[in-house]
Amino acid sequence: MKFKKSIIEVLLVSFVLAFSASAAAKDLRLGLIVPNSHAWTAAARSMAKDLKEQSDGKYTVSIYPSGQLGSEARMLQQLQTGALDMAFLTLAEITNRAPEFGAFYEPYLVENVEQAGELLNGPTATKMLDNLPSEAGVVGVGYGIASMRVMLTNFRATSAEDLSGRKIRITPFPPVRDFYNLLGAAFTPMPLPDVYDALANGQVDGVDADMELVWKLKLYQRAQTVLNSNHMMFPVIGLVSGRLWAQLSESDRKLISGVAKKHLNALFPKYTKIQAEMTRNVKNAGVDVVDVGPDFFGDVTDEWDVQWTRKAPVLKDLKAEAAAIKREDAPQ
Ligand code: BEZ
């Protein structure tokens, strides 16, 4: 009789424990615009695994890539209302809400993704995250990166003048719009998922993108030239809903932001390799890949700088930090 009672007690305790653990467990929904095969989605998967382990199962993450939850603008709204918990979004989307982030797109601010990593983990970029809760209703937990930007054209391009009047797809945000405007191109704002079809059906003559997209979205199949210009960095930012953040304990905030930042930051060294590999793939596919630098764009980069120093005064500090990073990197 006594034995039977203790079995019942054990079962009862196990049930209560299991129930309270599942009641406290939280599945975080995380959205991305990039496809499942993209390095940002792989970073989200690694983060999810790490977070589950480090929280002993308290936090799991369900990942929604390829814009399944809508455009980045829509995901940002969902973060604000609390309908979405987390997102890895292009910093471009944030720039639409908080224009000072446009400063990161200064042409040739840095020379490569490793330098971008140093700048994005530097004092100015870190401090800029403090403004996000009030400006956009989200908390920024860290930056990562994609490859440096290149230009793909379905016509032969040998000079910046060749871009004049051509319809070039751009990510919809002001810094890149201003750049193509200064180049005299007919810039065509378009989200990533629409790009392949637009190029295939002649809606655009060229695309501002990176080598990973040129390869993975098969854009190279429609290319005559890829101008390997590396003209801008293209950061990703990890965001948590401000509403969710307000409900989290200090230790859970630290855990989630620490794990997210670690996996976003791992993208910087990864992209040095990805960029080289994708460039090789595109060349091997027979596309004319032409290396060009700042001189290719003539006065346009300086004109952009004048415009954006006015729009985003923080650019002055970022340029000073970037100059120091470039000096450290320069061959002795
Ligand atoms: C783009 O709009 O070109 C883009 C979006 C997400 C990741 C990389 C590039």
From TrEMBL:
Specify the species.
Answer: Salinisphaera orenii YIM 95161
* Domain of life the protein comes from: Bacteria
Pfam families named among the record's database cross-references: DctP
A biological process (GO) of this protein is: transmembrane transport
Entry keyword annotation includes Nucleotide-binding: no
Query: InterPro entries, per this entry?
Result: DctP_fam (IPR018389), TRAP_DctP_sf (IPR038404)
Give the signal peptide, or none: 1-25
Question: Which protein, by its recorded name, is this?
Answer: C4-dicarboxylate ABC transporter substrate-binding protein
